[in-house]
Structure formats: structure tokens, C-alpha cells
Amino acid sequence: MSKNKFMEHRQFVLNIEHAIKLANREVINQMVLPINEEKVLAISVEVAKARGAYLEAVVKINAIDKDPSELRNLRETYEEMRDGFAALMTVFDRDYVDLPSPGQGSGAAPDPDARAA
After folding, report:
1. CA 73-74-77 angle, 5° bins
2. pTM to 2 decimals?
3. What is the DSSP letter of 96?
4. Under a CB-based contact definition with an 8 Å cutoff, are residues 14 and 20 in contact?
């Protein structure tokens, strides 16, 4: 591939990546905002609870009286929540959503009497 063709190809890819980012920002911002650190942490706790419930069932397996559908349901729930959380984190990594400014994490107004350390 000639240098000129390579540059054209690279520019095409950059243009497409930029257009995809803009499209994702436009659509996703409208659907998931407002989002803040507290909400993300709350979601991560729910994922941890689903993981814990699944692993608790795994540890308690008794082949004679354990219904495998219960274990399957717990696994599927955990995997869906884990994958959803990973998708949410990807949104942040790729800058598809507007993040709150510092001090807006809880939605509460900053304390005017608080001093910087």
C-alpha cells in the first residue's frame, strides 16, 4: 500500500470513529443521564451481590437435592449484570456520556464552608 493510500485509509477510519463517537454520545447521553459516581457505585454493589449469590449457591452444591435451574438462573443473572456494568464502564472509557463536574457526584450543592485540604 502506498503512503498516500495508507493516509487516505487512516483518515477514513478516523472519520468513521469520530462519527461513531458523536452518534453514541448523542443517543446514550439522552438515555442514561443524569449519571454520577454514586449511581455507578450502587450498580457495582448490585453486581457484587449477584456474584455473591451465584457463588454462594456454587459452594453449597449438593448433587442429590440441588435444582440445576436455580444455579443457572443465578449465573445468568450475574452474567447479565456483569456484562451490563462492563458496557456502562465502556461508555465512560469512550467518552460517550457527559460526566458530572467535580462536586456534583451526589447531586448536593457543595458546602461553601468546606475548605480545601
Report:
1. 85
2. 0.73
3. -
4. no
The tens digit of pLDDT for each residue in 63-106 reads 546 677 888 999 999 999 999 999 999 999 999 998 877 665 54
- Left if phi > 0, otherwise alpha if psi is -120 to 50, otherwise beta: which for 60? alpha
- Please spell the DSSP secondary structure of 25-83, one letter per residue: HHHHHHHH-S--HHHHHHHHHHHHHHHHHHHHHHHT--TTT--HHHHHHHHHHHHHHHH
At 6-22, the pLDDT tens digits run: 999 999 999 999 999 99
* Residue whose C-alpha cell reads 468513521 in the numeric block: 16
Q: How far apart are CA 91 and CA 49, in angstroms?
A: 23
Domain ranges of the chain: 1-33, 35-95
